[in-house]
TrEMBL record:
It comes from Sphingomonas spermidinifaciens. This is Uncharacterized protein. InterPro entries: DUF6624.
Length: 323
């Protein structure tokens, strides 16, 4: 028993890496405020030695933070008997790491060009974030469990719509250059991650105390909301796996929608194996929309989809193209 305890202790990931002292001037209440990229100055020519040191510290911290995060994920999944094969591309790192993720800008961009684009972007992006926060303040943690589940999706969906719709209506909402779009997307996606993680932590406590929210207990809308929160809990694959194991037997009792189990199954299996069973998760390669890698051929996948009450992969692709 002592040997087993020692082995388990040795297998635990180390504590989260601390934010380097060189980055302290950029922190407010322990983290970088949304839309504040001053720490990025050291990436560009003309930076001071202190700015270069801060940028290098931020880049090193982000990498160390992501390695630590993945170690935690693998340990938590191993405790559930699951082996991780793939995480990259299917896993959302914690907001602690994401605060030092660089926007997707090219090496030819100058600091003056970056700050000019940021000054244009930031009011729009922060306006979206502020509006979502004000809306959430009116509804979160209020009412019954069903009410709280339903309102937990307010920020989840508002931030995603604020990101997607601005891109779909480029010019009508804001005429962004590629540089401006990259900065705007960086601010919004970081907020999406933070909201998802707060929702995951909240739902995990509810599920631990009360079990999975059933249709008969919370109603269809709240049950849908519970699934959506689990579907977007990509920073915590172990919780997604727990949720899936709780939801799956409830399908036979008509307490959970089989399509939702199928979609969460794919979300989990992509993290574990890099492949999906039902073909619900899609990507775009060389300008063509296609599902992420499948465990079986398309015909076999379509049979599974039909059993879960979904249309075929081809019909799904056509619908997405229309949207």
């Amino acid at each position: 028993m002592k040997l087993l305890a020692a082995l388990l202790l040795a297998a635990q990931p180390t504590d989260a890496p601390p934010v380097p002292s060189a980055l302290t001037p950029y922190l407010v209440d322990g983290e970088v405020p949304a839309g504040d990229y001053r720490w990025l100055r050291g990436r560009f020519p003309g930076a001071t030695l202190a700015e270069v040191e801060a940028f290098r510290a931020a880049d090193h911290f982000r990498g160390a933070c992501e390695l630590w995060s993945k170690a935690v994920v693998k340990t938590n999944l191993a405790a559930l008997g699951a082996k991780v094969v793939v995480l990259d591309g299917f896993y959302a790192v914690p907001k602690r790491c994401q605060q030092f993720v660089q926007p997707g800008i090219g090496p030819d961009v100058s600091w003056p060009a970056f700050t000019t684009a940021l000054d244009k972007d930031r009011p729009y992006a922060l306006g979206v974030l502020r509006g979502v926060t004000l809306a959430e303040d009116q509804v979160l943690e209020k009412g019954s469990l069903a009410d709280q589940l339903s309102t937990r999706t307010v920020g989840d969906q508002a931030l995603r719509f604020g990101w997607v719709e601005s891109g779909k209506r480029e010019g009508a909402t804001a005429d962004y250059s590629p540089l401006e779009r990259a900065i705007y997307d960086g601010i919004i996606t970081r907020a999406v991650t933070a909201r998802d993680q707060a929702n995951t932590a909240w739902l995990a406590k509810i599920v631990t105390a009360q079990g999975w929210p059933k249709r008969s207990k919370v109603g269809q809308d709240a049950a849908n909301a519970a699934w959506l929160l689990a579907q977007h809990a990509d920073n915590d694959p172990a919780f997604q796996l727990k949720a899936l194991r709780l939801m799956t037997p409830l399908v036979a009792q008509k307490e959970v929608d089989p399509q939702q189990v199928a979609m969460l199954t794919d979300r989990v299996e992509l993290k574990l194996s890099g492949k999906q069973r039902y073909g619900t998760q899609w990507t775009c390669k060389a300008g063509k929309r296609m599902p992420q890698p499948l465990t079986q051929d398309e015909a076999a996948t379509d049979r599974l989809r039909k059993a879960a009450g979904m249309d075929s992969i081809a019909q799904n692709a056509a619908r997405m193209d229309e949207l």
